[in-house]
Amino acid sequence: MNEPVALEAADGLEARSELLEGLIGYALRRTTIVVMADFIDAMEGLGMRPVLFSMLAVIRENPGINQTTLGRALGIQRANLVPLVNELISRRLVDRRRHPKDGRAFALFMNGEGGLLLDEAIARVSRHEERVLAGLGDAERRQLLTLLNKVRSG
Amino acid sequence: MNEPVALEAADGLEARSELLEGLIGYALRRTTIVVMADFIDAMEGLGMRPVLFSMLAVIRENPGINQTTLGRALGIQRANLVPLVNELISRRLVDRRRHPKDGRAFALFMNGEGGLLLDEAIARVSRHEERVLAGLGDAERRQLLTLLNKVRSG
DNA sequence: TATTGTTATACTCTATAACTATA
DNA sequence: TATAGTTATAGAGTATAACAATA
Asked: Which of A128, B68, B108, B117, CA to CA, is 20 to 30 A from A110?
């Protein structure tokens, strides 16, 4: 409440950092945390996490995909994908069959129940994106997506 | 290599999802992972992680800040902040003193060694941001920062 | 009663190395 | 030799509940 004094405690209720506020990496990290938290809220009761949602989306759009390719598409290492795929299998959302031409590989397919769950999740994701992007116009949303992909492909 | 056939394995080397590619949340998450990985590379040998960097920045710019306020500024819960502050203390980058007017609280101050480390980290962060933003012009960089903060605050 | 810092705990994500079976 | 999937393990981030000391 008073003017700051050197070596006195700056223990107000709020603190800022001009350095951090100028860094895009920091803004990316903090914004992602906020958006992912809203995603998780939006999925309440579905047992859906961001990583499971993205796996279901890729599997449905790429029927028969194997785990290595799935992991590469999503930036997940093979070893870390194993328990995640097992989770989808044991929840009967995805079917896993031996690959017809490569005995080492599995082929993953979305089944009916997985499709229903994904559809419900997609409906919730639409509302979630509308909520977190409420402050942006259509042009700004397209611009943000373009800029993010530019950085990522960079 | 051939045209896709229903229920045949789509086990090519690459897979995409139009659904995910349209979601800003997904773009945020993937882009942040790429940028954070480059940050970590940039800090090689410094023992610096994103969270420690942000803590040092806030402590230097808010001398005497207590742990609760520091955590609130960075979105870190008090309980999770304890081992992180201990790490900075044991590495002699930050000093912790009892708060003069509140016996429950600590007041955190950056010391000389912490300042030197933070300065070196800032120099590396500048090169890191230049690297990950190389594909964007100045106007685009400002725009991205503005849009990210709009989403986060919105 | 409320707040600061702490401890304990559990879950998720991530990273690495080594193994098996198949190619 | 190389690749697909697996196992084991360790580190880091995150979330909750409960406690002691102090306000």
From this structure: A128
